[in-house]
Every structure is written in C-alpha cells, then in structure tokens.
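Meet today's protein:

…
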Amino acid sequence: MNEYGRINVEGDIPTEFQDKVKCKLSAPWPGVDLVLATHQHFIEMKNNLISRTVKLPEEFDCVEKINILPSETDWFYVLFATEKLILVNGPSFKIFKAFDNVESAEIKDFIDVGKPLLFLELSTGESVLTDGLQNYDLKQAWPPDEANQAVNNTIAKRLKLTSDHVKTEEQKLVSLKRFVDESYRCLAHKYNHNPTIQESSFQGVINPLNDCYEKSKNNVIQISEKHVDVWQDRIVCILSFQSRIALDNLQLQSVCEEPSTVTTKIMVAVFREDGQSLYPEATDHLEPEETGFAILIVPTSLVTLATSETVHINMSVKASQGCSTVDSIELSTQTLASKLDKPQNPSTKFLVDILAVFSMGVQEVVKISSDLGNLAEFEKVLEECGLEKSVNRFGYHCWKKEHMLFGSAIIYKRKSPQELSARLYALNYSTLGLVVKLLQKSKLPCDTKISLFKS
C-alpha cells in the first residue's frame, strides 16, 4: 500500500515521486533531513515527514540545484534554475527574493570577511553581491568607511519603514475591498425575504368557514413540535410536521396579532441523506411519513419595541392537499432572555440550531482534495480549528458565541482517501471565508485544494 506524505530520506525517492522531484539536497541545515523541489513546490522534511512547503512561481518550474546561504541573522535556501534564482528564507520558509536574467551565480567568500556571499551576473550587464539581507557595492573599497556606512544604514532603515508602511496600507485597502464585496453578497442573501402577512390577508387561516381550514380537519398535515430560539438579533420559530400523503406547494403562513411592520423570512426545509451524512435542504414537497420543518425568522425588535408585554404569532403550514391547524407562538422579553421552549434533548437542540444557521446564513458546497497526501486526519484538523463533533451524522460545528467561527458548520462526505465533498454553513460570508482560510493554513497535505463544487 502506498503511503503519501512520507519519504524515506535514507534511500532513493519512491517511484510515485520520481517524476515530480526535480532536485534534492540531504541534511542542508541542522535539524533538517532533506529538501526537494518539484514542478510547483519546494519541500522541507524532518523525521521522514513533510514539515514545511512553499509554492514556487509558475515560471520557476525546473530547479537544477539547491544550496545554502548563511547571513548574520538569517539563512537562506538558494534555488538555481535556468536564468532564474530564488532565495527562500530558512526560518520562515517563505520566498524572500527572486532574480531573473541570471547568466551565472556562485556562492563563496568573495571579499575575505569570513562568510560566504552570493554573486550573480545578469544578462542586463549588472552584477549583484549579497548575503541575502544586504547587497554589497562592488565598487566600494572594503572594509567601508564607518561614517558612510552608518548614513547608508540609516537611509536604508527609513526606506524599509516607508516601504513596510505602504505595503500595510495596501493590504488594508485589499481587505476593505473584500469586506465590502462580501457584505454586498451577504446583504443580498439576507434580504431575500417575504414581507409580513397582515391579518386582513390571513382570514382564510383563522376563519372556520375557509375551505383550507375545512381540509385541515382531516389532519392532512399534523404539527408535532414547535421550537423558539434566539440567534443574535433574530428570533427563529420552527414547526415540525408530518403527513400520511405526499404534499406539494408547501408554504408557511404567519400573521402577528399585534399591529407591526417588520421584515420576516420564511422557509420549509427537510433533512436529506447523502451517503453517511445528513444535511438540511429547502423544499416545497414532502413525502409520506417524512418530517418537514416550517421556519419563520423575525427580528428581536418585534418584541423589544412592541407596545404590549407579549406578541402572538399565528402559524399554519399550507399545501395543495390541505392545511394544518393554526398554531400560536407567544413571544416576550422573557423569550429573549431564557429562550422559551428550549429543547431538552441535545439531538433536538442541535437540529433546531442547524436549521437556524441554515435559514439565516449562507452556504457553499466545496470539493477538498489532495494528490500527494491523504485526508485521514481531516477530523483532527477541524477540532484544532475550534469545531466540535455534531450529533448523529451532521459533521462538525461551532456554537460558541465567544469563538470567531460562531455559527459555522461543515457536513462532509468522503469520496476517497484523497477527496471529500463538504457543505459549509455560516451566518455570513466573512465567517465562511474564515473557515476556508483556516483549513488552507492547517496541517492538511501541502497540495490540498479547496474549490467550489461543480455538479
């Protein structure tokens, strides 16, 4: 059986890696067993395991030689290629500098200072002498005048501070642009709501002479449970229901007995099975003996700004085949403080929470895959990110309000040891994007790809 992610550095490179590895160097630095370069990555190994990786530029696709360049405070890996050269910082393992149009390059003590330097001749006619951090003037007598050197150092430090400040401000602008883009997308999703149904348009539900109400007497739709939960600034009301016959054109009708004008959101959902996982899905159809969930979301301002102490909402589930009886939910300030009708069963409580996140937030289906490694420790990575295992077959979630991933969940299905499909849920796209970033920066294999699922 092939074991991906591990290489025996004491022998030859395994057959499955030979076509990918272009160059290697054994024991380049204390504590490092091996470094090697592929078409796309530069990889460092310790104790027979891949410890760190860095992605190489696309144009830098054929490393011919690897060497080491120590400096006064740092040290560097030097990657030689045809007419190109890259310096990779050893402690941080990030690309530090890149040179193009390189005709020749050599590492040795050129100015007799007791340390090796890197000398490059470029096709442009220029020459560079550097220890990685500092470039040396080839025309200057050595050692340099201390006064001039102090002035040059001061100017270099000020230039570096200015450059760092410009880069920081540029990153802030990029982050702000992403935040604005995500906010637009999130707002567009949130406010795809239905307006509150006024009492005058709801007479067909509460009037006993209405035909729909007569159908409900036949128990076409039976309400089994009702739940009320509070998530941030919204109240989530859920009715679970069943029917002995198939139902079409399902919808939830609601009316507030007290005069109010608020924006609400309604949805009918069921739980679908996908392999070894369960996930919520919006629907307008229900099969016999299947459990459906009618969801109503109202802002907490409906209660906090009400003129009366309590607010009553009448709810009914309607289908082409008939209606349910009208069920009334009472909301008050006590609801916001103690969450009335809080489920006692942890499994039921989790179902209410995942339906709340599903109906209020956003979701994306992604594919997570790796060619060089496997995803055997995916669950461990999720726990290290702050998620905890959900009940039954609902993957992992984070309901801790103090955690940065609050209101996020991931339900996944394995397709192979190297690939799985996952449904990501979050209250907004900022949190969903943060989940993806944490997975990308985790201990998953270095070539792990997270991409939107294409059916």
Summary: Confidence is low (pLDDT under 50) at residues 1-11, 192-201. Residues 252 and 354 are 19 Å apart (CA to CA).
